[in-house]
Every structure is written in structure tokens, then in C-alpha cells.
Amino acid sequence: MTQSVSPLKKDNVRRGSLFEMTSLRARLLAATILLALVPLLITSAAVTYISSQGLRQDVFDQLESVVTLKNIQVNAWLESLQTNLDLVLVNPASLDRISTTLSSPDANDIAQVRRELTEYNRRSGYFTELFIMDAEGRVIVSTDDVQEGKILTTQPFFQEGLKAPYTAPPTYDLSLASYSIVISQPLKNGSGDLIGVLAGRANLDVLSEIMQQRAGLGETGETYVVSSNFAVLTSLRFSETAVGQTYIHTNGATDAIKNRTNGSGIYLDYRGIETVGVYHWIPELQVAILAEHTESEALQAANRVIQTTLGLIFITILAAGLAAFQFTQRVSAPIVNLARAAENISQGNLDQRVDVAQRDEIGILAASFNAMTFRLKELIGSLEQRVVERTQALSTVAEVSAAASVILETDKLLQEVNDLTKERFGFYHAHIYLLDAEEKNLVLASGAGEAGRRMVAEGRSIPLDREQSLVARAARERKGVIVNDVTQAPDFLPNPLLPDTRSELAVPMIVGENLVGVFDVQSDQVGRFTQSDADIQTTLAAQIASSVQNARLFSRAQSALAQSEKLFEGSRRIAQTDDLQETMNSLLELIDIPIINGALLLTHNRDSQNNIESVDIVANWWSGVGDPVYPVGARFSIADTPGLEAFVSPENLFFRDIYADQRTQGNMQESGIRSIVVLPLFIGSKQIGAFSLLGMQPYDFTQDEIQLFLTLAPQIAAKLENRRQFERAQKQAERETMLNAISQKIQSAATLESALQVAARELGHALGGKPTLVELELADNPSGQENAQKESLA
Amino acid sequence: MTTKKIFQALRFTTALIVLSLALAACGAKKNAPADKVAVQLSWFPSVEFAGFYAALENGYYADENLDVTLIPGGPEINPLDAVESGAAQFGISTSDSLIIARSEGQNYVAVSAIYGQNPLVVMTLSDSQITKPEDLAGKTVGVFSSDLSTVWDIQFLALLQKTNVDRESVAFTLINDYHGANELTSGNMDAMSGSFATNEPVQARLDGNDVSLIYYKDYGVDVYSNVIFTTEELTQNNAELVSRMIRATMKGYQFAVENPATAVELSLTRDPALDLALQTNTMQAQIPLIDTGGAPIGSMDASVWETTQQILLDFNLISAPIDLNAIYTNKFIAP
């Protein structure tokens, strides 16, 4: 169960994707734009990426070179500080004085050295303070005399300066209230003994100056120095905060200071603005130099490339979109039109037309569509027309059938059918062939109009097996046969009576299983008949066939009734009269077959072997037309009369046309007789004679007639026998009367002689005047009686 | 694999990560309840302790899983005793006090110096033309005790000694008014010794007086005036706790020097009676003491300890040198 349900469920659950559901136009549009955009976007992305990366790298490179430059400048400054410090001691006189002062400080010496240092520093201008410490770290001489006497033993610049030239990282000096850098170096006397430390203090102004010299960093670029405690040591371009009091913990500063490293990156600067930065760690000063450039400006070029590309992409998208829209519109509009038209048509609007001017496949499709719609409309129109026609035809069929059904006489019926059919359907001709009793020939039974009547009169018939006949074919195949251009049909036989026939339709007339005939209609138009016509005419034919059947049944019933009456009448007439001649007359009056012009009643005469030797005409009838019949009393010897065999046949014989009949072997030809009926008459098994009807024309005796004959024949035989018996009895009586008279005459004869003479005379007279021999036997001789008996019988 | 399936996989993975992180966080918290730490401060609440306040308020202690209590100090409170008694694990004292304590057998260890330099100054009115210790000869100088026995007086004596100023040439007088430069402007004295650069001069300048300062440290009197100390035991047995404590506190001081205004606000919440202007200027004054620019905040220098001890020896406050390597360490200071 579930197995069979699940696929249905699947179908229900399955839905089209959004893409499937959207309209053709939207899909085309999307696809076209995608087609245009995908390569565009890929290319632009690649170009943008490459160029912006390049430009970005340029920015970093520029910052790197700036930082490097600053680094070099700082180092150069530090070197010059160191050099300048060295130069303090170049003068041996000064060194001596310093040595002396350190070993035994004297106010005058100190003042002298201070003056020299001050003078020197004034000229060089590198230091804010030059000072000399003794080996314990006590400041002995300083260009700032307030500083003299200070004990800087714990200061790194002293401790390191004892060993080697040293640069102290920037530190905040509380008493000076500022950051400063101290450069120091060992101080040795002329003999090379370490006697103290020479130091120079430099403030950070120079560092600031170095940093503030712009090196093409644009409006937002700057370089600055951050101490290892994250305090900024040079002035900032975008901050008022004093040196040493602003702490900078940007990613760049943190990386440089924590990791004591050089580097670069994009990060938020001290203002919180996205910045491109490059930084160097300067180990000598324990500070970091940072060069930063606001990203928006630094990457302006790169951004401009991106912006330009984006702008171009946008414009291209617009253009592509427009083009795609146009293209899609152009492609899809006709299809949408078509679809709309199809929808309209599906709703029954066949007047819908698609206007497509294109000459491409869509144009062809639209044209085909229009053609299809036109054909469809035409088809539906003609269908309606055909339905009307068909309805009319069927009503005509009904009409014809109705008219036909009330006619019980076949001829009239068929005539009516033909005439009506021709008239109502507007045919050129209509006629009906009926299958004959033997079912071998189709006999023209009725035809419309004068031509029809003439053809019927000609007794046209078509053998059922005639190959070329349209009518025969329809009968054989039991279906309608159409020839829509008879002049083109190879087997068409032009009918002079129907010269204008161009197309012909023959339909079989069938009732149940039985073929009754063929209904044949003709038109003077080529191509007049369709299968539809065949169907209609077949319907009509079936109804005609039915009517014909009805009519036939009716007439059969009628004739059966008439037959009974005739039989009765015949029997009555046979019984009514004793006279054979009279019987003949009344019988033939009853039979009433026009072509019968003569009739004979014959008796047989048999020889001693009981073979029929001759026949006697015992009664006859003649209509008065044609040759007279043989007279009553005529005797024909079998041996002498050719063709007489037929009249002694023990079989019933019906000759339609003896001229054409094999059985007569030509014997009866030229007798003037064409059709004959011979009915042998039997009393019991004894054939006593025959009753024969003679016709002047060939005639098909109907079953009814034959039946009538066969019914009457025994009665006629009985009549004839009666008649013979009666005649024999009468003759016997006459003979006995005569014999009585002769006996009386003989008895009245006086003598024997006279008696014999009388006998001979009387007997001769009585027996036909032939010479009479009388033999007299005196004894009662039975054989003599027998002979006499025989005589009388002859 | 479809995009949808990738998203599902990602979502699942993300969920797993979030879950595991949450579990890890829960686990960490459950496994280690915050360590309770008490700090005995050396004086009343002031901006001097702003680093502690910032570490507390900004959650630096919490980040280190520390539950820190700050105990204000005062004239009657000796942080050494507080740590000794266990009332606090950390205290604030001076380098000389710690050396003396150690010489007496109390083994405290300095783990950080709040001020990297000695804040003691001799304050004079600028008009006095006294710019160096030698200028004090023949002048009247205010001191803290008549017998010059306080640590501040001793440091002043050390200053005189190092600068070869004969103490007999100086007239000592007791400072009675510690407010600004009152004693100077009143003419009671020519100079005030033992002033804190972060206190009296600031007040004096706020009062409108133009004062000059002679820094003790410029003349070899290098003493740490406020070192954070704890017991030697704690540094040895729970160095990790000390490290967390100092790391958070120094972070607090870094915050304070970088955000002086906020540091002042935090201090004022500790004691609303504090003067905003004074605290603000004190903060500005102590920034260079806290952050000297050269070394990391909190770090200490061996020479300062040597100097301190030498002073103590010179003035017979201790009889013998102690092991300076044991009394302080920079190992808890991040470089």
C-alpha cells in the first residue's frame, strides 16, 4: 500500500525551484545578466585585486622608505652627537684642564672649563647641556652650573659611559621636567687613566624636527617616535598632547615596542582612524619610529582604482541590464504574446491573432500559430457546417424513410425513394438494384426520373460477380463504394442515359444479414461524395432495405391470402362442373397469368405393356391470342410427335423459356411457345395424364403460382378420373342398352340366321361399322364373353 | 556537497565550539575560585594608589581571578605589621624600612616600586635663589623631628652629607604646617626638607607660590618611597599569585598614567573628601615618578637599593649589610 502511495506523495511534495516558477522573461533576464556579469565581475575583481594590491604595496613601500629615511636621519643625528662629544676632547689643552679640574676641583678651573664647554656647545649647538662627571658620578662641570654637584652615580649614562661611548634612551628628568637623550663616553686623561664621564644632553626637539620633515606623505601622513613605555616623544600632527604625556598603544607601536621589531600593517592609529603604518625599532634609543598614512588617503589611488572599477561595473551592469532587458523583451515579448494568444485560444477565442513581424524561428512559430488557429477556426466552422449538413441529410433520410415506410408496394416504394433522394439531396441520379431470387444478379428495380424508368424498362441487371461494376462491388463487399471522379475510374462505363455523371456512390441495402440490393446515387460534380455521405446513404439504404423487406413480406402475405382464395376458388370451380372444358375455362380464368394463352388437358393411352403410347387432348383453352391450341380429341402418338415426351413426364415441369431450355433439346423450338408448365396428373401412383399451360413469352412462374398449380393438379387429376369413370360408366350403360336392343332384335328374329344377321348389323353399327364377324358358339363359353369384353374396351 | 550542507556543518561546528568554550569557562571558574588578597596601603586614599583602584574597578584583578581588598593606611598603621600579622598579603612601604626590617629578621620582599624615583625634595621659594644643596648652608631648613631621626630627616642628612654640606651650617627647625609652602611664605624657614614632589610643591603651586625643588635623587639619595612588598614565603610558595597580583596592579598604574583624569575620578570615589584640583595635579606630578620613560613601570634598580643600604649603614640604622638580592626582585615585572 505504502509503496504505491509514496510516489504520489513525492510528486505532491516536489515543488519547482524559484527559478522554475519565475517567468520566461525573468529567467532570460537573469541568465543574460549573469552571462554578462560573471566574466565581468571575475575580470574586474582580478584586475582590481592586482592593481589595488600593487598600489597598496606602493603605499607600504613609500612608508618603508620614509621610515628608513627617518631612521637614517636619527642615526646620523646620534652619530653627530657622539662625534661632537668626541670633539670636546680633541683639544689637548682642554683635556688637560679637565683632568686637572677633576683631580682637584677648583672654582677657577671649573669656571674655565665651563666657559670652554659653553663656547664649544654654542658653536656646535648639538647639546642643551654638556657636562663632566668624575669617576664617582658627581657632576663637576656643566654648561648649566645648577647641575654641577649632582650625583648621578645610578644613572645608566654614567655607569655605561664609564665603559664606552653610550647613548641613553630618552628619559624624563624630573628637575628639568623634560625628556632628554644623554650621550656619554669615558673621560681619560693624557696618560689614559679613566677619570670620569663626558656627557651631552640633547633634548628631543631635533628628533621632532626630523620627524616633522614631511617626505611626501600627503595631507595625512606623519612620522613620530614612541618610547619603550609607549609615550610619544615627538609632537603629533593631530594631537595637542605634550611630549611624554600621550601614550600610544596602536598595533604598530605595540608590535614595534613589545617585539623590538620592524614591521608594517593597517591598523587604527592614535585617533582611531584606519591607518597604513610602517615602523622601525631603533635599538640605540629604545624607541620606535612610526610612519603612518591615513588609509583613506594612502590608499586613495588603490581605492580610486576600486571605485573606478566599481563605477565601471555599475555602469556596465546598468548597460548590461538595459541590453539584457531589451534583448529579453525582444525575445520574450513574442513568446509572451504567443502564450497569451494560446491562452486566449484555449478559452475559445479563435479570432485571436499573433502579431509578430520577426522572420526568425519565433516569427515562423507565430505564423504557424496563426495558420493553426485559422485552420482550427475553419475546421470548427466547417464542422458546424457539416453538422448542419449532416443533420439535414439525416432529416432527409428520416423524411425519405418515413415516406417510404408507408408504401407497401415495392415498386412504388423504390420509385418514391429514388425520386425523393434525388430531389432532396440534389443528386444527379438515384436508382436501386435488387438482388434476384437466385442471389446472382442485381436487377435494376427502380430509378429516378425518366432515365430511371427507361433503364428499368430495359430490364438492366448486373451479375453479382461482375468485377468492374461499382454496384456489384458494393453488394459483394457489403459496404459503400465511392468513385469521386468516374471519368478517371478505369472500369467506368459511360451511360448514355446519364451523360453528366461525374461521381457515384453505391451503398448496399442490407437487412440483418441479408443483402437486399444496392442503392446507387450519382452526382454531376466531381468529388461530391464523402465517407459521411456514404454513411448517410448507407443509413438510408438500410431503411429502404427494411421497407423493401416489409413490402415484400406484406405482398407475400397478400399473395398468400390471394393464393388461398384462388385455391379455394379453383377447387370450387373444379368441383362445380363436370365438364372438363368448362373446368379448364374457369381454372384459367382463375389463374389469370397474362402471358398464358393456351392450356391443354391430356390423357395418356397405354399399350399392352402399359407404356404410354399416345396422348389425347381431352380439354383445351385458348385466350384467343397467338396460335390456337390443339383441338379436343386430337391424339398424338409419342413415337410420332417430337417433344411430346415433356407431356408424359412424371415430374412437374416449369419452363421459363423453352427456346433457351436444355431439357427440350431444341425440340420445342419454332412451336411459338416460350414458356410451359406441365403438371403430371396422378391417381394414386398411376399417371393418367397431364395438365399443361402454354405461354407466348418467357415467364418466371412465381412460387405462389407454382404452389397453386401443384395444389390444383391432384384435383384436376381426380376430376379427369371422375370424368373418365363417368364416361366409361355412361358408355357401358349405352352398350348395355344397345345390347339389350340387339338382344331384343335378335330374340325377335325368327330364325337363327336372321338373328345372326341382325346381330352382326347391329353390332357393326354399334361398333363403328366395321365388318363384323359373328361366331356363334352354342355352348356357354366364358372366353367368348371375355373377347367381347375386350372388343368393347377397344 | 551542497552549500546548504556546508552551512549545516558549519552551524554544527560553531555550536560545538561555543558549547565547549562555555564548558571550559564554567570549568575554569568552578575549578579555581578567586584568590582572596588584601593589600595594606601606606596612607589614606589618594591618587597615589590610583593603580590599585583602576585594577580593581577595571576588572584587572578579576581577570587574574583575584578577589582584592584594599585596606587604607594612616599614621597609626604600619603595613609591615599588617603583612606580618597576615591581615594583608601585600603592603606598601619604603626601601629603607624593608632593609631595616630584614636586618631585624623580617624577611619581606619588594616586588614592585610604584615610584621609580625618590619623590623627596627640598622645597624653596624660587625667589630664595636656593638651587642646590650647598645653597642651604647658613639657611633655616624645616625638618620632621628635632633629633632628625625620621627616615625623611635621615635622607636629608644623607643629602647634606653627599653634597658635602656641613650639617652644622644648617639651622634645623620643625615643620609644623605641612600645607604647601606655608612655612616658607611665613618666613619660618628658607627651605623645607622631606617634601614629596607629589604633595607640598603641588599644593604650594596651587596656592600660587613659585617654588623650586631640589630632588634628593639628583644628589645620590636614591630611595624607593613606596614599594609593594610581600612575604618571602609568598614569593617562594605562591609566585604565581604574586605575579598575577603585580601584573594586574601595574596594568592599573599604566592605565592611571595614560588616563590621569579617570585615575583621579577613581580616587575620589575612594574618598569624596579629596580635593579634585590637588589630586589632579598630584597625578600629573607623579606620572614621571611612576613612568620614568626608561624602564618598565614598577621595576627597580639595584643601585637604588645599594644607595639606600649605604645611607642606612652610614647613619647606623643598620649595623651590617643585608643580602640585597633577597630583598627585592623584578621577576614579577613584565618587561
Report a brief summary of the structure.
Chain A contains 19 helices and 21 strands. With 794 residues, chain A is of the alpha+beta class. Chain B has 2 domains: 33-116 and 224-327, D-Maltodextrin-Binding Protein, domain 2, CATH 3.40.190; 120-219, Periplasmic binding protein-like II (D-Maltodextrin-Binding Protein, domain 2).
What's the layout of helices and strands?
The complex is a heterodimer of chains A (794) and B (335).
Chain A: H1 2-13, H2 18-21, H3 24-88, H4 92-103, H5 107-124, E1 129-134, E2 139-142, H6 156-161, E3 166-173, E4 178-188, E5 194-203, H7 205-212, E6 221-227, H8 251-259, E7 263-268, E8 274-282, E9 287-294, H9 295-298, H10 300-346, H11 361-405, H12 410-425, E10 429-435, E11 441-447, H13 449-457, E12 461-463, H14 470-477, E13 481-483, E14 503-511, E15 514-523, H15 531-576, H16 580-591, E16 596-606, E17 612-622, E18 635-637, E19 653-655, E20 675-683, E21 686-695, H17 703-748, H18 752-766, H19 782-793
Antiparallel strand pairs in A: 1-2, 1-5, 3-4, 4-5, 6-9, 7-8, 8-9, 10-11, 10-15, 11-12, 13-14, 14-15, 16-17, 16-21, 17-18, 19-20, 20-21
Helix pairs in contact in A: 3-7, 3-10, 4-5, 10-11, 11-12, 11-15, 12-15, 15-16, 15-17, 17-18
Chain B: H1 3-31, E1 35-40, H2 50-57, H3 60-63, E2 66-71, H4 79-85, E3 90-93, H5 95-103, E4 108-113, E5 120-125, E6 140-143, H6 151-162, E7 171-174, H7 182-185, E8 191-196, H8 200-206, E9 211-215, E10 227-231, H9 232-237, H10 239-258, H11 260-270, H12 276-290, H13 302-314, H14 324-327
Parallel strand pairs in B: 1-2, 1-3, 6-7, 6-8
Antiparallel strand pairs in B: 3-10, 4-10, 5-8, 5-9
Helix pairs in contact in B: 2-10, 2-11, 5-13, 10-11, 11-12
